[in-house]
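Re: the request from the purification team.
They wanted to know what the chain is likely to look like in 3D before they choose a buffer screen. I agreed to run a prediction and write the result into the notebook, where they can find it.
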Amino acid sequence: VTKNEYTKKYPDLNPDFIFAFASHNMRSTELNAVLGLEQLKRLDQNNIARTKNLEHFLSLLDSEIFQTDFKVEGSSNYAFTLVLNEPDFVKRDKVESCLKSAGIEFRRGLSGGGNQLRQPYLRNIKGIPQSETFPNVEHIHHFSWYIGNFPDLNHDQIDWLGKILKSV
C-alpha cells in the first residue's frame, strides 16, 4: 500500500502523520548523545527564550478565537500551540491556507498526528474505543496546530505570525 492510498483511505488524518503499523522510532544513540551533551550547555538559555517567545505569541492571539490560557511555567515550549476555541472547519481551513500561503510550516493535531485512535494501526484492534468517545482529543485532532518555536526567533518574526493569524 502506498502513501497516496493511505491518504485517500484516511482523509481525516494528516498525510504527514499516518501510522500504518505499530513500530519503533530508532535513532543513532552515540551521535545523539554527542549532540545532546553539546546542546545541554544552552538548554536553560534556550528554554527561557522559548518561554518568552510563547508568551509573546499568545499575547498576539484573539482569545475569542484561539485558546490563550496555557500554563507555560516549567515547559520548554518547543512549539507555539494554536487551538481554536470552537469547532469550525471553515475557520480551520482558512488558518491552514493563511499559514501555507505565508510559507509557515505547521502540524495539525499537535505533535504525533492528532487522535491516535484514528490511525490505521489502531482502528481494527478489538477493544480499542472509537475515536469519537474522546471529544477533547477529537477537538485537538481537527482544530489545533503546532508551529515551531525556535530560541532565536525575534519579536518581529513572531509579530508577523500574529498578523497572519489576525487575518483569519
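For the purification team: The chain has a mean pLDDT of 90.
Please add any questions underneath this entry.
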